[in-house]
Design goal:
This protein is α+β, with helices and mostly antiparallel strands. Helices cover 48% and strands 12% of the residues. It has one domain. The chain has a two-stranded parallel sheet. The radius of gyration is 12 Å and the shape is flat.
Length: 65
């Protein structure tokens, strides 16, 4: 099963460091717009669409595509 690390921009460095510490440095990472908490439903839908696009690109073309 493919694995993708998903986080918002302010947490990207922490997420990558944590993945590295867990021996998961090769896991591709998708970074989306912050924040997720306290935003309107339509903004959550926008973030979900942003994440979906990036995750699909990573899974089909590789990280950085």
């Amino acid at each position: 099963m493919p694995v993708v690390l998903l986080c918002t921009k302010p947490f990207a460095a922490l997420a990558r460091a944590t993945a590295f510490g867990l021996g998961l440095e090769q896991v591709p990472m998708v970074v989306i717009t912050h924040p997720l908490a306290g935003i309107h439903d339509t903004d959550v839908a926008d973030r979900a669409a942003e994440a979906y696009e990036q995750v699909m690109r990573v899974l089909t073309q590789g990280e950085g595509a």
